[in-house]
Amino acid sequence: MVLEVVCPTCGGMKNLSVPANIITQKKSGTIKIHIKINAVCPEHQFLVFVDTRGTIRGYEKIDIQLVSITHKDKIKNNIKEFLTRLNFT
């Protein structure tokens, strides 16, 4: 199934493919689809609400995204702090 998804912030539009069985398996209510950055537009992520017939019923902007810092990022930050203390930056 193809959905014409519109970013609720900037109006960017893209057709996205969603497996039909996701829609048909839901008996009632809405399917919530998380649209990540770059999926529709380069700057925004949001939720799309789709009913059991595949009709988009609404959008919701995401206020905040929490991202975990990986071990590699922690090491990089520690090295930067160490070099700053030694005045090498």
In short:
Helix content is 24%, strand content 31%. The protein is built from two helices and five strands; from the N terminus they run ββαβββα.
**Assembly classification:** single chain
Order of helices and strands: EEHEEEH
Number of strands: 5
Helical residue percent? 10-25%
By CATH, the topology is: Folate-binding fold
Low-confidence stretches: none
> How would a textbook summarize the main sheet?
3 strands, antiparallel
Form type: elongated
Describe what this molecule looks like in 3D.
24% of the residues lie in helices and 31% in strands. Strands 3-4-5 form a three-stranded antiparallel beta sheet, with no helix packed on it. The model has no long low-confidence stretch (mean pLDDT 89). The chain has a single domain, classed as Folate-binding fold (2-Layer Sandwich). The chain contains two helices and five strands. The chain is an alpha+beta fold. It is elongated, with a radius of gyration of 20 Å. The N and C termini lie far apart (53 Å).
